[in-house]
Amino acid sequence: MAFRVLINGQPHALDCEPDMPLLWALRDLLGLTGTKYGCGIGQCGACTVHIDGAAVRSCSIPVNEATGAITTIEGVTGPVAERVLAAWDAHQVAQCGYCQPGQVMAAIALITAGPVDEEALEATMSGNLCRCATYMRIRAAVREAAQ
Ligand code: FES
Questions:
Q1: ipTM of the complex
Q2: What residues line ligand 1, using a CB cutoff of 6 Å?
């Protein structure tokens, strides 16, 4: 069965089962491997993408429910994304790097929705896990990008 999706501004027809997680469609059908698999049950945030600008966990959204404009780490653009990526570089956030696309996508959605105070920062970013425990650098980068 074919499902029409809009990803990074490009229309695609996905030939797959309706309950295929969006994460697998992105990675296995479209080769967009910047979005990572961590837990597969919506708990770690590694698979975070945007749908209509909101951060969502692509492992937990079936393709047939992915009806909005989807943006992956490969497709983020604009001033907020530029500020976030620059802050990530400035604070040398990444260690192993695996969770970072999800962290960046969560941060962009948070700052775009703004304003960002410590409570909002913690509430959002605490949902994205990092095995290397780069949390202090992540939060410093988000604070800087949010200014
Ligand atoms: Fe989706 Fe962990 S892989 S939340």
A1: 0.98
A2: 37-40, 42-47, 57, 59
List, in order, residues 6 or more apart from 51 with CB less than 8 Å away.
61, 66, 68, 69, 70, 71
**pLDDT greater than 90 at residue 51:** yes
> The domain that contains 138 carries what CATH number?
1.10.150.120
pTM of the shown model:
0.97
pLDDT single digits (tens) 85-100: 999 999 999 999 999 9
Q: What is the domain extent for residue 9?
A: 2-71
Q: What is the whole-number distance in angstroms between the Cα of residue 42 and the centre of ligand 1?
A: 4
Q: Give the count of domains, the chain.
A: 2
